[in-house]
TrEMBL record:
<feature type="domain" description="Amidase">
    <location>
        <begin position="3"/>
        <end position="434"/>
    </location>
</feature>
<dbReference type="InterPro" id="IPR000120">
    <property type="entry name" value="Amidase"/>
</dbReference>
<dbReference type="Pfam" id="PF01425">
    <property type="entry name" value="Amidase"/>
</dbReference>
<dbReference type="InterPro" id="IPR036928">
    <property type="entry name" value="AS_sf"/>
</dbReference>
<dbReference type="InterPro" id="IPR020556">
    <property type="entry name" value="Amidase_CS"/>
</dbReference>
<dbReference type="InterPro" id="IPR023631">
    <property type="entry name" value="Amidase_dom"/>
</dbReference>
<protein>
    <submittedName>
        <fullName>Amidase family protein</fullName>
    </submittedName>
</protein>
Amino acid sequence: VQGRLDLLKQNTNNTVNSLLDILALDLAGKVDAKIAKGETIGLLEGIPFGVKDVYMVQGTLTTASSKLLKNYKSAYTATAIQKLMDAGAIPLVKENCDSFGHGSSSENTIFGAVKNAINPELVAGGSSGGSAVNVAKDYTVFSIGGDSGGSIRQPAGYNHIYGLKPTYGRISRYGLMGYASSTDCVGPLAKSIEDIRIVLNVMSGKDTKDQMTYASETISEKSILNHEPIKTIGYFKSFIENDAIDPQIKSDFLAAIEKIKAKGIAVKPLDFFDPNTLVSTYYTLTMAETASNLSRLDGTNYGNRIEAETLKETYAVTRSENFSEESKRRIVGGNQVLSQGFSDDIYLKALALRDTISERFENNFNDVDIIVSPVTPNTPPKIGKSLKDPLTMYLSDGYTVGFSLGQLPTITVPQGTETGLQITAAKNNDELVLKFANFLK
Ligand code: GLN
């Protein structure tokens, strides 16, 4: 811990904007004291980690990188974070991100755009950009991000580290600020598969405070060394044969496929929806869900209330002054697709399409054990470009959002293409994802 703190102190000006509050200054000596007293220490004792600023950690500010919650202090601790602390890990820092998870670049934040760990002129990716950069720069051993449509996988790819979105429901969302409740997932970012495996095991499990959680088995160190169960993998032709993909990412991906074949694994090209259909289905549903989730933030119970003459005006002024342009775009869009006259044509259609997408995933997983894809169609853009062009930003999520709609386990590994390879398995097969990631190492 001391080593990481020293590193953090040397970077107190934090020119990459990845850090918000440093939490653990008084904890560093506690592990040594425990050992000196002969007390048993936990699996993660003394390991410092980062927390995306959308998780409650009691007594700390949890701002969601928003103006609205700039001064909000958590009243309790999220289940996933508590489990890590119970295993001895130390939450060291809160991490900058896109406000309420809305974004793919970590520029939609009141704390300044997070800069890419490899090239600071480029975006860090998002929304868990601070978390990816902190791991890449060794400020934290691992970080806990949140992934509703790619927010762990895409910044992991942009900063050349690992990032896992587990099966939906494997880890409790209690204490994670809700963005899109039907796709929100808690997950780790780290520099090794082994770290990802250990942290996943600690956080997993049924939680009575999140009714979507289920009990899962611990994934052993030995089991991920055995790739034998993986005989056939597939990839979506629609993700590779389109005009939007960066030519370098395409040729790197095809070369990675050839390497996998050379290792004795069969590879099948698969038919699937085009990425733009996945993007429109995802954004229709997640805008509806975020409009509903954020309706509670009207300045009454939480947040930076701005008084006006009437209660109604108070709500209006509080929300319009405090939400970012991007969050407002989503709230307005979400309320529109949910409203009478539009919901049948837009929202219900998207829900039906999501069911078809899930069925197609199931069919595909009858033929293959794993699906691989690039993480993104593009390389990271320069800082300052993305916010001006929200549609391009949404379309850049085309390879990650489908797997979120399917609630599937999926990991970014930092190889194959400039922004990594994405490895996905059928629901509850998180172990298979780690096996294949380890096999490609
Ligand atoms: N970029 C996607 C979005 O803006 C995903 C964000 C996320 O996973 N939180 O919705």
